[in-house]
Structures are given as structure tokens and as C-alpha cells.
């Protein structure tokens, strides 16, 4: 089992962006332009420990899809033209259960792609979703294997409108010196005969709960929904982050503890057992939200500070300087080139 950083690496590591660019031939100036359009400051990529909100990576991914007319940009020798995933999705929606939908998805993908295929294997009380590589991908092997497993997991979770817990993930490669963009750090192994993830077999009989209208929204946000699919929502860190994100990013410990039906002491202890603290969760979320807003809108800095629950603009400036090594204003200026 490969040890990964704790949940605080919940954003996407910048290595994911570097790996994404491996499969496409672009001059440095064009890459910089795409990063700016996605709301990513190029200097953020210079530090391996930096994290990106999934929405920023998703925007960059969509820009590459548009530029290369390939829904798996530069991954394989044969591109998947825009609209492919839409028609695959439409063919799944009338399946009687998840098992039939997954087999359809694997079959259709094998028709469209020569380089690799999916395989659904039932093993006693588990189901194994396999990624079978027939020839090496054009892009980073680690990126492709991880994203394609994430795709089928995210799609399956979306189809039944329920995050599917993963019991094990195996990769058919050795870990690089800094594999920090892995999506399943708690259940991940390397050097496997093939790349796959395992789910409980009972989920296969779940009915599908999505419609054509839902599919449009899913594809419009792609790949955000299947990149950010929840894996372990029972963890207290996720419950706290979810409350802060949906209800009040400025909430204090007593408010959140009360909403989660816990005492402050119990909440603090459970977070510590999961390797986190309330303030760490709050800071990470506010950092992600700040980066997202600075890249998307020209919201005045003082208003953004207020939205994020900082008492003053000065305290927001100090926090952002600690997170990113520059002020929010400087960060926004860099995004604007």
C-alpha cells in the first residue's frame, strides 16, 4: 500500500496538469494561454505540493477537448470526437440496473477505441471494473489509467445517484517518485497485473436514477462530476467540509458540531483520529473557494473576503499570502497576464 498525504491533499495535485499536457503537442505560450483561460496561474504549477480545485482542472480539460476535438485529449491513437460520451450516456439510461449499464458502457467503448477496453468481472461478493491496456497510451500512463478508472466509477455513481464506495484499487505500474494525484490513496496498490477497482457486488442491482436532462448537466460539467465523486462520505472530515461549503464557510466549531449532532469535544477528537483539524478543513476550503472566485469573476477583494467569512480584508490578505505566497490581488493580476 502506497502512503499518501492525508485528506488535506483533497484538491487535485498540479502533477495532474503536467501529465495532461504530456499527450498533446503545444508550445509553452499556448499552454500558458490555456492555463489563464482555465483560471490557473502558471506559477501555481511550479510547486508540486500545490493543489487545484477540481473545477479549474475541469475547465482546462474542456478547453483541450475543444482544441483537439477529442474527449480524451491526446490519450489514445484514435480520438473520441466530441459528442461520443453523450451518445454512450444516452444508450445507458434505459438499462434496468447498473450491471447492464456497465456492460453496455464497456462494449461501446471497445467499439470506439483500439488502444484499450473496459472489462466487468464479477468475483464472489465483489465486482471488478478493469482497464485493459492493449497498447501504451499517448499520454502519461499513470494519468490515463487513473482517469479512465475514475471515469467508470464516477459514471456508475452518477447513474444511480449514489457515491459508490471503492474497496480496492490496483494499478498496473510502479509508483513514480511523486505520485500525489492518485484519487484513491486509502485503498491503492501498485505492481498489479492490470489496473482495476473493486466495488461491492450488491450495487450492480441498483436501478438507474438519471434522465436525459440530467445527462446534459453531467456532460456540461465534465469531467468535474466524475473527478470529484465522493468516495468516503461517512468520514467526519467530509461531513464538516460539506457543511462549510454548502451552508456557511465562516461557521465555527460549535455551530458545525451542533448540526452534526456531536459535542465540540467529540467532533474535535474524531477529526484528529482522521488526521485533520477543524481549522485545517476551513482553511483548505476557503483557499479553494478563493482561488476559484479569483479565477472566474472580478468580485472585489473585500467582498470576497466577506463571503469567505474573514473579519477583515487584511486578515484575508494575510491568509492568502500564507497559502499562495502572494496577495489575492497579485494572484488575480497573474491570471490576467
UniProtKB/TrEMBL annotation:
<dbReference type="Pfam" id="PF12625">
    <property type="entry name" value="Arabinose_bd"/>
</dbReference>
<keyword id="KW-0805">Transcription regulation</keyword>
<keyword id="KW-0804">Transcription</keyword>
<dbReference type="Pfam" id="PF12833">
    <property type="entry name" value="HTH_18"/>
</dbReference>
<keyword id="KW-0238">DNA-binding</keyword>
<protein>
    <submittedName>
        <fullName>AraC family transcriptional regulator ligand-binding domain-containing protein</fullName>
    </submittedName>
</protein>
<dbReference type="InterPro" id="IPR032687">
    <property type="entry name" value="AraC-type_N"/>
</dbReference>
<dbReference type="InterPro" id="IPR009057">
    <property type="entry name" value="Homeodomain-like_sf"/>
</dbReference>
<feature type="domain" description="HTH araC/xylS-type">
    <location>
        <begin position="234"/>
        <end position="334"/>
    </location>
</feature>
<dbReference type="InterPro" id="IPR018060">
    <property type="entry name" value="HTH_AraC"/>
</dbReference>
Amino acid at each position: 500500500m502506497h502512503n499518501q498525504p492525508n485528506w488535506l491533499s483533497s484538491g487535485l495535485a498540479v502533477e495532474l496538469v503536467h501529465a495532461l499536457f504530456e499527450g498533446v503537442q503545444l508550445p509553452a505560450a499556448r499552454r500558458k494561454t490555456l492555463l489563464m483561460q482555465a483560471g490557473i496561474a502558471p506559477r501555481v504549477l511550479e510547486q508540486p505540493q500545490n493543489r487545484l480545485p477540481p473545477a479549474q482542472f475541469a475547465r482546462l480539460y474542456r478547453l483541450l477537448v475543444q482544441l483537439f476535438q477529442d474527449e480524451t485529449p491526446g490519450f489514445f491513437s484514435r480520438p473520441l470526437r466530441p459528442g461520443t460520451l453523450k451518445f454512450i450516456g444516452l444508450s445507458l439510461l434505459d438499462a434496468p440496473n447498473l450491471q447492464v449499464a456497465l456492460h453496455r458502457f464497456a462494449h461501446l467503448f471497445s467499439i470506439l477505441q483500439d488502444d484499450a477496453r473496459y472489462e466487468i468481472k464479477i468475483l464472489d461478493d465483489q465486482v471488478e471494473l478493469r482497464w485493459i491496456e492493449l497498447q501504451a497510451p499517448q499520454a502519461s500512463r499513470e494519468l490515463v489509467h487513473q482517469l479512465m478508472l475514475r471515469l467508470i466509477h464516477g459514471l456508475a455513481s452518477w447513474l444511480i445517484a449514489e457515491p459508490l464506495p471503492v474497496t480496492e484499487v490496483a494499478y498496473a505500474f510502479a509508483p513514480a517518485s511523486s505520485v500525489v494525484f492518485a484519487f484513491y490513496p486509502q485503498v491503492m496498490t501498485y505492481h498489479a497485473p492490470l489496473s482495476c477497482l473493486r466495488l461491492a457486488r450488491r450495487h450492480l442491482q441498483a436501478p438507474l436514477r438519471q434522465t436525459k436532462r440530467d445527462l446534459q448537466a453531467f456532460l456540461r460539467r465534465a469531467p468535474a462530476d466524475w473527478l470529484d465523486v465522493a468516495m468516503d462520505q461517512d468520514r467526519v472530515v467530509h461531513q464538516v467540509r460539506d457543511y462549510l461549503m454548502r451552508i456557511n464557510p465562516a461557521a465555527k466549531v460549535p455551530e458545525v458540531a451542533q448540526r452534526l449532532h456531536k459535542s465540540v469535544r467529540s467532533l474535535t477528537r474524531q477529526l484528529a483520529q482522521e488526521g485533520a483539524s477543524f481549522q485545517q478543513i476551513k482553511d483548505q476550503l476557503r483557499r479553494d473557494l478563493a482561488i476559484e472566485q479569483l479565477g472566474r469573476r472580478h468580485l472585489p477583494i473585500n467582498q470576497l473576503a466577506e463571503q469567505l467569512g474573514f473579519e477583515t480584508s487584511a486578515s484575508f490578505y494575510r491568509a492568502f499570502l500564507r497559502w499562495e505566497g502572494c496577495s489575492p490581488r497579485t494572484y488575480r493580476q497573474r491570471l490576467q497576464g
